[in-house]
Each structure stands twice: as structure tokens, then as C-alpha cells.
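User: Please fill in residues for this 130-position structure.
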């Protein structure tokens, strides 16, 4: 059985944070850039009713990413990208899948940016043995 998803897109989201493994990276904030694809169950009812409550509010998503990004001090882009996806799944129960592309545009002088693209599905609820 295949699942039909619709995708909410957020491109070019940029915040500053402490990120990196080298002392010069830890000494000052630097920009990080996000592009996200957020899978939700079909948005038909939200579209028909014109109701934000039936889908995911992308402004609240951006605010959550800003909070996660700016309240942490990360060494690896992998750690920040995972923290963002974990945080979004906790805050937004309608999200089914997240693709998160994270770039550090100032990491290397000879590249437009370095980063990671991660793709995560909603974690399965923990099962308890009885």
C-alpha cells in the first residue's frame, strides 16, 4: 500500500548559530541555510476548507527551526540537521517525512557551501512489552 503525501516547501531559510569543530568556528556565530521538504498527508481538506489547522503552518515550522538553531551550539551539520528533524516531528504531529538540506555557506572559501541532506520518516512509537 503506498502513501500519498503532499509536500510543503521551505527554501533559503537562514539563521546564525555557533557551529563547527575548529576554534575559529566556535568563536563567533555564522550563517546556516536550510531547504526543507515536509511531507504531510494529502492537504485536500485544508485546501477545501481554507483551514491552516488541517495542515502544517510553515511560519511555526520556521520559528521552531530558528529556536533549535539559535539555542544550541553544534559541532557538526549532521547534529544540527538531526536536531531539527527530531524537533519538528515532536512539534508537528501531521508531518510524515522530512528532507532537510543544511548548508554552511562560509565553511570553505572555495565552495558556495558545505553541508548535508538528510531524509527522515516519522519515528515509530515505542512499543512496550507486557
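Assistant: Residues filled in for all 130 positions:
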Amino acid at each position: 500500500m503506498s502513501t500519498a503525501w503532499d509536500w510543503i516547501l521551505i527554501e533559503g531559510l537562514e539563521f546564525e548559530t555557533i557551529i563547527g569543530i575548529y576554534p575559529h568556528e566556535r568563536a563567533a556565530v555564522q550563517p546556516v541555510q536550510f531547504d526543507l521538504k515536509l511531507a504531510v498527508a494529502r492537504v485536500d481538506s485544508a485546501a477545501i476548507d481554507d483551514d491552516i489547522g488541517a495542515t502544517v503552518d510553515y511560519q511555526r515550522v520556521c520559528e521552531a527551526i530558528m529556536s533549535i538553531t539559535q539555542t544550541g551550539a553544534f559541532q557538526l551539520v549532521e547534529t544540527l540537521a538531526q536536531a531539527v528533524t527530531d524537533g519538528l516531528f515532536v512539534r508537528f504531529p501531521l508531518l510524515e517525512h522530512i528532507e532537510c538540506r543544511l548548508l554552511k555557506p562560509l565553511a570553505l572559501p572555495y565552495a558556495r557551501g558545505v553541508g548535508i541532506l538528510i531524509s527522515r520518516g516519522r519515528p515509530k512509537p515505542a512499543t512496550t512489552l507486557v
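For context: The longest helix spans residues 77-91.
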